[in-house]
Design goal:
Blueprint: E1 4-9, H1 14-17, H2 31-46, E2 53-56, H3 60-72, E3 80-82, H4 99-106, H5 108-116, H6 128-148, E4 153-157, H7 159-169, H8 174-177, E5 188-192, E6 198-202
Parallel strand pairs: 1-4, 2-3, 2-4
Antiparallel strand pairs: 1-5, 5-6
Helix pairs in contact: 2-3, 4-5, 6-7
The structure holds 3-phosphoglyceric acid.
């Protein structure tokens, strides 16, 4: 049984390019982001992979990335399930601010704590721990059972919602997960064992 699970962070967004805290703001992909999504689709197809169902967030940048990938793979008729449980972490009051301006105002260390600590929330927003608390139950109840039944599943989402899933699959601690960077448009592909742990991580660049 092929218990295939692929995770892809959306391609570069307008606000990634402008270096703005984005969170739940609904911004589009840049030209580069669109190209990254096409490349991800080509890469998955070239590896001989296919999918039975896809999941994405309620945000356009992830949905658009998914549509491009499915188009590249000639899989436009598979079911797509969209849910805000897969949204990016909510950046609260930081949303729309420039990350360098924020460093100048609050200091490098404080901004790093907001961006990469496990349980310190940015003002009015979600910490990674808060994001895990909504994303992980969704993964466990909606995504993982399908993979374990043998459905091949593609998830297009966001840096921190994917980190929440990767944390469990790659057995990270609170200290190591914050150092696990998830690049835009680069598929992370696992085969799971029957007990839901990772049996194999596929290297699509090989
Ligand atoms: O929401 C954002 O600004 C980014 O997509 C993720 O931000 P981060 O790199 O600060 O986690």
């Amino acid at each position: 049984m092929d218990r295939l699970l692929a995770l892809v962070r959306h391609g570069q967004s307008d606000w990634n390019l402008k270096n703005l805290f984005t969170g739940w703001e609904n911004v589009g992909l840049t030209e580069k982001g669109i190209a990254e999504a096409h490349a991800a689709g080509k890469m998955l197809k070239a590896a001989g992979l296919t999918f039975d169902v896809a999941f994405t967030s309620a945000l356009t940048r992830a949905q658009h990335t998914l549509d491009i990938i499915l188009d590249e793979m000639a899989l436009t008729s598979i079911p797509i399930i969209r849910d805000e449980a897969l949204n990016e972490r909510d950046y609260g009051d930081l949303t729309g601010l420039n990350k360098d301006d924020a460093r100048a105002k609050w200091g490098e260390e404080q901004v790093h704590i907001w961006r990469r600590s496990y349980d310190v929330s940015p003002p009015g927003g979600e910490s990674l721990k808060d994001t895990v608390a909504r994303t992980l139950p969704y993964y466990v109840s909606e995504i993982q059972p399908r993979v374990l039944r043998g459905e091949r599943v593609l998830v297009a989402a966001h840096g921190n919602s994917l980190r929440s899933i990767v944390m469990v699959l790659e057995r990270h601690s609170r200290d190591t997960i914050v150092k696990r960077e998830i690049a835009t448009g680069e598929p992370i592909v696992y085969r799971l064992a029957a007990d839901s742990t990772v049996a194999e991580t596929l290297d699509l660049t090989a």
